[in-house]
Amino acid sequence: MDQFAVRDGELVVGGLSLSELAAHAGGTPFFAYDRALLDARMRELRETLPARIELHYAIKANPHPELVRHLAARVDGLDVASGGELALALQAGCSAAAISFAGPGKSRDELEAAVAAGVLLNIESHREARELADIAARGGRAARVAVRVNPDFELKSSGMRMGGGAKPFGVDAEAVPALLGEINRMGLAFEGFHIFAGSQNLRADAIVEAQRLSFELAVRLAEHASAPVRVLNLGGGFGIPYFPGDSRLDLAPIADNLATLLDEADTRLPGASLALELGRYLVGEAGVYVCRVVDRKESRGQVFLVCDGGLNHHLAASGNFGQVIRKNFPVAIGNRMDAPRTLVANVVGPLCTPLDVLAERMTLADAQPGDLVVVFQSGAYGATASPQAFLGHPAPVEMLVG
Ligand SMILES: *Cc1c(COP(=O)(O)O)cnc(C)c1O
């Protein structure tokens, strides 16, 4: 993982060594997110993708308030998936006009809060349409809506499929014309479509194909809409490398394809803007998780480094967040970065469950109690996607640094 510098054998994040960061955090474990890396990633996207592509941040990937505030000032919009995230987005200073709200089980309270704030609602069912019409009728404020479409195709090579086949997300493409009729009759303010096929994809050709198919689907469905499409949200899903053999996503073909789609949109979806809502790709590589070795023990010929945090803080690194076959995240002994890797060890957390594994039989620097274990690629789906109450250990500190 070469996005971070090493100083005197210690990994440096946001200009501070891991031991300095541990002092700031008041100990371990902690997550640190590097501001400069977030900015570099935004810059890369802005420089590579066509200028007219709107870039949104999907808060779900990392809702740390300081990080959200930082990104809110740099992206074109925030995507939220709960009432809590909606409040966070508004507190981060994002204008309601630039917030969209997706999610398959929006409650009455959430829908009311969203209409009151004036954000765009990605409708995922007939019930949501009816509730929104009722809320608008009672409150006198028109609900801004887009239709989240469950596409009639699947994203190839996706780490986690979010569309195609039978899914709880969105409305099946073939049922969308009827829903559009209902939206029209109910007087909801239709603004566009949201089509998100899947997460963690490292293959540009698969993403290009999904974006092309999403565009064609939106053009077909637009014929049934009562108002022009103002926004076509093509979803997130850009992947980052985690495992040996993973290669970096090539943005160039995606940029070319988006430029073509923008050109076509001028005639086929006039007035529409194209948006991406990225989570993992924006924040994943900018973050590390750091815990401390509490014990080093041997069992039947294997070495175990037992740390003060594990799956309770970082479920994804333990392999229990969507992995089918467990693979090691990139892990290192963060205060011995210059030392030769001579120790084959299992890195485990403190929980009484065999699932609490951060690295299995990994070759590491020779580590002792007190040393710092660092898990890279931890800026997305880390603390937020972990069962922090499990076993009652303290929550990790999270810091935006640099
Ligand atoms: C999770 C999610 C995203 C972000 O996905 P990434 O794979 O992290 O880019 C975007 N949009 C919606 C609706 C989501 O649920």
UniProtKB/TrEMBL annotation:
InterPro entries: Ala_racemase/Decarboxylase_C, DCO2ase_PEP1, De-COase2_CS, De-COase2_N, Orn/DAP/Arg_de-COase, Orn_de-COase, PLP-binding_barrel. It comes from Pseudazoarcus pumilus. GO terms for biological process: lysine biosynthetic process via diaminopimelate; polyamine biosynthetic process. The active site is at C352. Residues 38-283 form the Orn/DAP/Arg decarboxylase 2 N-terminal domain. SUPFAM superfamilies: Alanine racemase C-terminal domain-like, PLP-binding barrel. The modification N6-(pyridoxal phosphate)lysine is found at K60. Pfam families: Orn_Arg_deC_N (PF02784). GO terms for molecular function: diaminopimelate decarboxylase activity. Keywords: Pyridoxal phosphate. This is Pyridoxal-dependent decarboxylase, exosortase A system-associated. It comes from the Bacteria. Its cofactor is pyridoxal 5'-phosphate.
